[in-house]
Every structure is written in structure tokens, then in C-alpha cells.
Amino acid sequence: MDFTELPMELIMEEILTRLPVKSLMRFMCVSKLWLTLISSRYFTHRFLTVPSPRLYMCLWDVNNYLDTEILSSAPQAANTTTTTTTTPSAFLVDHDLTTPRMGSHILQNLGGFMCYVYWNKPRIYNPATRQLVTLPFKKSDHMIVPPGGKKIVRYYFGYDALNHKYKVVSSISVHLKQNMEVISSENWVFVLEGGVCSWKKAALTSPDFCPHVPCKMEGLCIDGVIYYMALLGPVAEAENNIVGGIYTKLKYLQWGHMDWD
């Protein structure tokens, strides 16, 4: 196959229909063929029916990570009474993120949904509908912090392919600050579905489960498995480990150590 030239059909269907109008006006001067193509009724119809690309981004100040804004550039709502094209607009996903000293960070984007944590509460945003949902904070008052100890709460975003549900996982641990010795560790799951939802404790698969302290790093969901970094014991004895969990019917599976050379 000769890759030196692209088929005109591919150029029209996949490239030209996704360009802004100003660029198309300039490309009409390329040749008579392009002039005829771009000004044709067929191309005009295709251009109006192809959805405009959407751009989503998270911006933060490198000198102050608390100064964060999540932006979206998407077409405004279409006018059903006319066939005119919509104009792009940029808007803030959450204006509260500009509040001083109340920054946030992105967890992961799955299936068109953006998940991020704001003021210790996970939030799910649907860019297509501009809907923003704040999940309730997972309380852990029953996990007592001893003198010299610290409690850490981390959130992870995943997709359960078996049940076709999006889930947010909360990993809570209590450890000693001096040597990172783990005192207690729990995992909770919040299923994102219609109706009343609540946090449910993940059933542990003993003896596979190891109490751990989740690191301050985003997790990654691959094929229904959430991978994240964690510390499995005192600093003098432990190595950093990759911990993986697949959530099926709220059961938590975990794999063992991965030593770093």
C-alpha cells in the first residue's frame, strides 16, 4: 500500500469535516478540486452533521498546586429550530476550584467521565451533559488514630466490566508517622448507579489482602483492575509495591510484592 497519498474520501470524511470554517475557506484556494469539494452540497451536509471536537483540560499553577481550574471547550447547545452551526465556548467545570487553598487533583478519566477529588470529596463530571456530582465523604471515625499516628484517605476510579458499573474506591489506612508501620487498613466501594447509593465495605479475600498505606499517586484502571502504589510495612522493612484490585460484587483481590531493583 502506498502511503504517500491519502484517499480523497479519507481526507474529506476524517479531516476536512473536523476543521474550523476559517481553515476550510483558506483550503478552497488549494485547487479547483478542493474548491468544488468544499463548496458542494454533500460536504456542507457532512460538515454540519459531524460533531465538533471537545477539549477538556486541567490547569494548575506549578508554584501553587492548590490553584487549580478544570476547563472545557465544547459547542453550545444546538438550536433545534435552525441548521446553523454552533459556536465553541469555554467554561469552568467547577467555579469553586478557584477558591484559595482548596485545590483538587484528577484521579482518572473513564468512558467519558472525569473523576477528581475536591476538598476530600470525590466528584464525577460528565463533559457531554455538563453534569457534576459530588459523592458523600467516606467517614472513618471508627478507625482510631494512636499518638504519633496518621490517617490517610485515597480515592480511585474504576469500571466494573462484569456488571457494567462505574465505581469509586476509597482506601483508608492508619499508620505511625515515624516508620510508616500500618495499624489498620480498609477499602470501601461506591457504586455509581441510579437510585440511592452508599459506601459499602469491600469483602477482603484473606490471606491475599495485606494492610497497606496508599501512596499519594493516582491509580490506573486497566480491564477492570485498579492498580496503585502502596507501602506494605515499616520503612526499614518494606519496599514500594504495585497493588492491583479488581472489584467484582464488592470483593477485593490483591496481588503481592513487586520488588524494585
From TrEMBL:
In this chain the F-box domain maps to 6-47
Specify the superkingdom. Eukaryota
Please list every transmembrane segment annotated in the UniProt record, as residue ranges.
Answer: none
Q: Which CDD domains match?
A: F-box_AtFBW1-like
What's this protein's name? F-box domain-containing protein
Organism this protein belongs to? Brassica campestris (Field mustard)
